[in-house]
Amino acid sequence: MAPLSLQLFPSLSPSLSLPSQASRLPVLLGGDTSSEAARSRLRSCQQRRNSGQWRSPGKRGRAPRREEQEWSRSCCWCRLLLLLLLAMPRALAACLFLLPLCARALALNVAAEDVKDRTEQLSQTSERSGNSTKISKELKEIVFVIQSQRNSFHLKKADDLKQSIFKQAAVLGKEMPTVLLIHQMDKHEGAWTILPLMHDFSVTYSRNSSWFFFCEEDTRIHLVKLLKILEGYDKSKEYFLGKALHDDESTIIHHYAFAENPTIFKFPDFAAGWALSIPLVKKLAKRLKNEPLKSDFTIDLKYEIALYIWEKGSGPHLTPVPEFCTEDFDSPNAAHCATTFANFLPLCGDPVKKTDIFVAVKTCRKFHGDRIPIVKQTWEKEAALIEYYSDYAESSIPTVDLGVPNTDRGHCGKTFAILERFLKHSPAATPWLVIVDDDTLISISRLQKFLSCYNPTEPVIIGERYGYGLGSGGYSYITGGGGMVFSRAAIQRLFASKCRCYSNDAPDDMVIGMCFSGLGIPITHSPLFHQARPMDYPKDYLSHQVPISFHKHWNVDPVKVYFTWLAPEQKDFQDGRKHVREDL
């Protein structure tokens, strides 16, 4: 039969005799094995334990962990038990009694520690859950409005942004925020101008929301940072938040307002996103109900919204928010930003071939000598298919006489004659027509890349969008100076209808807009087309663009403007990076 010590402690090797185990007790107990020594060692162990001064070997100079304290207590009892087993055989009965108590005490200590750890974990989980619930609640109070468009390319971009918002929200909480797409709200043509929607916004969302946040399709939003930014503003007050732009000089597109100091008036850069508090939305809705919009034309929406909110000084100014940015999302300057912007030229595959773009230049005899040479000196060589349409045939240019008398304004008869000629005389395989003025400056190479994102088999008309009478059922149109881009399918739809000019001098761009509105074909806006000169736009606004066109030779050197802003470069944005100009 095995010795009792081996029955109680099977881990002891049976090859070792009891005396040999006893000889190891000085190592286990750290000293003599006599009863008096053991009692002395036990008293020392207990005193050090009770005084809280236990120190594990090799760990001097720091407070003991709880595990070390528990282990020290267990070691004291187990050492005493082993001493009794080996040195006092007559005390075996007492050992048998103490052994389960020792094990039980150790198990209780371990269980107590486990309960404490679980309690701490539950507390931390509860705290995180509370924060998540708070974030989810705050997120639910924001109504996101994406300034989307009905064209298929833009629908895809808007949906991508919407899904990005939902994915971020899913991480933060269970409840999804409200995300609205402007193109789905156009009960009338003017939904894109925002202000006509204020009544619906107020009635539908003011009870459970605190903010409306507006952004473009290419805006990128960091939800956690956005929530933190909005928390810093009192939602019970009237706030108009955004990245501030201002004119550097008075400009025609803003009707030369604030001529004495154009920099004093701030308006938001839509690309960075902008926000209205619910009290301000409700105020605007009430005002619009009592005083309908008076302006006939919508030219620069971001400026006109700020002007309406300001209300000649009685309304709030725009509050600049540095965290609303137009930096690239991966820029080192965007680390603090709640919003960023994809500020590169759209490219959706191979650029459109030059032979797929037919360029029509509108001119007249009196401008053959000063404007046409500028076209030839700058961008004409980029175009593979180009014709100049005039009221006089001049072979040296050459120009084509359309048989339509020149008019001082409007040019509707001339433009419709160009559209008809394109359908009848241009190669049927040419999918795109671009109509420009003789003082338009345009980059054909950028237009090639840009058009790769649009389907020419769809009825498409693209350019800088203006509006007429949109507060009372008017229509949108592409302003002609920045260039009007038509798909062949759009022109075919136009001529299949009965919509035509009511006179040769009618405003061609507005009549075309009215016709397409009646056909239910949307006007597609791109901020890369410009009706005016570079100096007529804020520098910060142009800094995150890769412009396709500008307009007017007045008071500028058009050749310098072209080579500064529009001329092809060796790396003409093929890598999709932001275009930087030293003069900014």
Describe the structure.
This protein has 584 residues and is an alpha/beta fold. It is built from 18 helices and 22 strands. Residues 1-35, 52-68, 80-86, 88-130 and 571-584 have low confidence and may be disordered. The strands form six sheets. Strands 14-13-12-15-20-17-21 form a seven-stranded mixed beta sheet. It has a six-stranded mixed beta sheet with strand order 2-1-3-8-5-10. It has a three-stranded antiparallel beta sheet with strand order 9-18-19. The longest helix is centred in the first third of the chain and has 49 residues, at 92-140. It folds into three domains: 4-54 and 64-114, no CATH class; 139-341, Spore Coat Polysaccharide Biosynthesis Protein SpsA, Chain A (Alpha-Beta Complex); 354-565, Alpha-Beta Complex (Spore Coat Polysaccharide Biosynthesis Protein SpsA, Chain A), CATH 3.90.550.50.
CATH topology of the largest domain: Spore Coat Polysaccharide Biosynthesis Protein SpsA, Chain A
The rounded distance between the terminal residues' Cα atoms is 97 Å
Overall pLDDT score: 82
- Total number of β-strand segments? 22
**What is the molecular shape?**
globular
Helices, by number, come to 18
Radius of gyration over C-alpha positions, nearest whole angstrom: 39 Å
- Give helix % range: 25-40%
Helix/strand structural class = alpha/beta
Q: How many strands, what sense, and barrel or not for the largest sheet?
A: 7 strands, mixed
CATH architecture of the largest domain: Alpha-Beta Complex
CATH class of the largest domain: Alpha Beta
Strand order, largest beta sheet: 14-13-12-15-20-17-21
Report the uncertain regions: 1-35, 52-68, 80-86, 88-130, 571-584
| Percentage of residues in DSSP E strands | 5-15%
Number of domains: 3
